[in-house]
Amino acid sequence: RRVVRQSKFRHVFGQPVKADQMYEDIRVSKVTWDSSFCAVNPKFVAIIVESGGGGAFIVLPLAKTGRVDKNHPLVTGHTAPVLDIDWCPHNDNVIASASEDTTVMVWQIPDYVPVRNVTEPVVTLEGHSKRVGIISWHPTARNVLLSAGCDNLVILWNVGTGEMLLVLEDMHTDLIYNVGWNRNGSLLVTTCKDKKVRVIDPRQQQVVA
Question: How far apart are CA 35 and CA 133, in angstroms?
Answer without folding.
Answer: 8
